[in-house]
Request: fold
Amino acid sequence: MARRYDPERRQRIIDAAIRIAEFKGIAALSHRTVAAEADVPLGSTTYHFASLDDLLVAALEQVNCEPRSAMTDWEDVLAEVGPAPAGESQQGGLSLADALTRLLEEYAHGGRGRIRLEYELYLAALRRPALQPVAAACCDEMAEVLGRYTSDLATARVLVALIDGLLLQILLTDRPFDRAAVRAALARVTGEL
Reply:
């Protein structure tokens, strides 16, 4: 029997892995479950991805590099703030704390499944060294973007850590988004009290 040409198979496998991780968690991910979800032969998953780590790296890269990724959305809103002058916090217009609060609120209301997926993939990097460079690159990209609106990169990195903590708390507690508390926390870091 001739081999069927299927140029989209690799992408279907990645998409299936993302769906499984989003709805069932990374623990449910195996070559077998991905093959069933993608409707491909089991051998196809191991042909395209020798290990689950290889598949997880591809999934994490795709989640972070989609055409309208979260960072693209964030850059659109942060453009309303304008870059901070060297050594100063932002003055006038939409404040950085207000812009970030708005973004986090939209993100939190946009579906917690997607947030869970992103954090599952990031946290998997703790035990899977192959994922660490991709997760680190995501944190670095976010710090770079936020750094355009803060007085220094160190402040941007603190904001990234705070944002991660706030989103994880929302996921863990399943509490509603508290706009005032989030804005106050962000304003402490940005100096907009």
